[in-house]
């Protein structure tokens, strides 16, 4: 297990640095994510070559990197992750495989992803509630505005929830699903209201960093700088210096979710709470 402990320690150190950087600067440097993958694969290669006598330990890491490279892109282009989060996810693919068989490693992947989704949902909810509490007056106005603007959207879910709840007299389990459907549009509008009321900042162009999200398209002379998921480039930032203020949309720093999920995964494996 020595090699596994080395990989786990390496990942924890890198994720801690990524978390600190994400909280401090709202971005994770590419070199930090890339170096984790390089060091992990390098360790796997030399350990396989000199200690194990075969290259399976290295191959499993390379396969994991490939799988999580695909997952990271899915999360990124699905607009669930920013670029730094997606690259951190990709790099962890080189860390996670700890067994000699692909099937056992797939179970590790699924365990990590399950924990990541659960922790991510709880973390997002806690952060959203905190932002809402701090900016309560603005949030209250925005939530009222969103509810008034989306009455038709809410009505459709209420009707669907009513049908499901009536069906629960026949199939009892439908009751909980009906409650979920009823609450869902309000929860969605609350998250949207938090985003609009608490996550939009009016900043000086000098404070922009590569990858920041513009809230809306910005005209600079004859040039239109679009608000895209990829964020602003260095060229965009130079042009935007001509503006006095820029509206920027900030996301929730997500690196802490990686750290918590990874530590929970280790505890689950060490204490035998997940069968392999």
Fill in the keyword field for this structure:
276 residues, Molybdopterin biosynthesis moea protein, domain 2, 3 domains, three-stranded antiparallel sheet, two-stranded antiparallel sheet, 5 strands
Topology:
Elements: H1 2-25, H2 30-52, H3 56-77, H4 83-92, H5 102-134, H6 136-149, H7 151-167, H8 174-198, E1 200-203, E2 213-214, E3 218-220, E4 223-225, H9 234-240, E5 246-249, H10 255-270
Antiparallel strand pairs: 1-5, 2-5, 3-4
Give an account of the 3D structure:
With 276 residues, the protein is mainly alpha-helical. It has three domains: 2-122 and 253-270, Four Helix Bundle (Hemerythrin (Met), subunit A) (Up-down Bundle); 130-198, no CATH class; 200-249, Molybdopterin biosynthesis moea protein, domain 2, CATH 3.90.105. 69% of the residues lie in helices and 6% in strands. The protein has helices at 2-25, 30-52, 56-77, 83-92, 102-134, 136-149, 151-167, 174-198, 234-240, 255-270, and strands spanning 200-203, 213-214, 218-220, 223-225, 246-249. The strands form two sheets. Strands 1-5-2 form a three-stranded antiparallel sheet. A two-stranded antiparallel ribbon has the order 3-4. α2 (30-52) packs antiparallel against α3, α5 (102-134) packs across α8 and α5 packs across α10 (255-270). The longest helix has 33 residues, at 102-134. The radius of gyration is 23 Å and the shape is flat. The mean pLDDT is 86.
């Amino acid at each position: 297990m020595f090699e596994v402990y080395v990989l786990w320690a390496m990942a924890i150190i890198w994720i801690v640095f990524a978390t600190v950087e994400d909280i401090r600067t709202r971005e994770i440097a590419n070199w930090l994510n890339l170096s984790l993958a390089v060091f992990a694969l390098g360790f796997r290669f030399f350990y396989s070559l000199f200690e194990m006598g075969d290259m399976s330990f290295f191959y499993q890491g390379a396969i994991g990197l490939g799988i999580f490279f695909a997952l990271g892109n899915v999360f990124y282009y699905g607009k669930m992750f920013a670029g730094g989060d997606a690259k951190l996810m990709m790099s962890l693919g080189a860390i996670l495989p700890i067994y000699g068989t692909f099937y056992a490693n797939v179970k590790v992947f699924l365990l990590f992803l399950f924990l990541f989704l659960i922790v991510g949902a709880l973390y997002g909810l806690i952060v959203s509630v905190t932002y809402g509490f701090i900016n309560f007056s603005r949030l209250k106005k925005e939530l009222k505005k969103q509810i008034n603007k989306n009455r038709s959207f809410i009505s459709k879910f209420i009707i669907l929830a009513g049908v499901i709840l009536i069906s629960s007299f026949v199939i009892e389990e439908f009751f909980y699903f009906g409650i979920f459907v009823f609450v869902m549009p309000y929860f969605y509008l609350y998250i949207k209201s938090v985003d609009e009321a608490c996550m939009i900042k009016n900043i000086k162009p000098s404070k922009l960093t590569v990858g920041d999200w513009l809230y809306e398209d910005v005209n600079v002379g004859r040039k239109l700088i679009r608000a895209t998921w990829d964020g602003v480039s260095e060229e965009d930032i130079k042009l935007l210096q001509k503006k006095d203020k820029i509206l920027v949309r900030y996301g929730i720093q997500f690196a802490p979710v990686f750290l918590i999920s990874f530590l929970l995964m280790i505890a689950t494996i060490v204490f035998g709470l997940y069968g392999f």
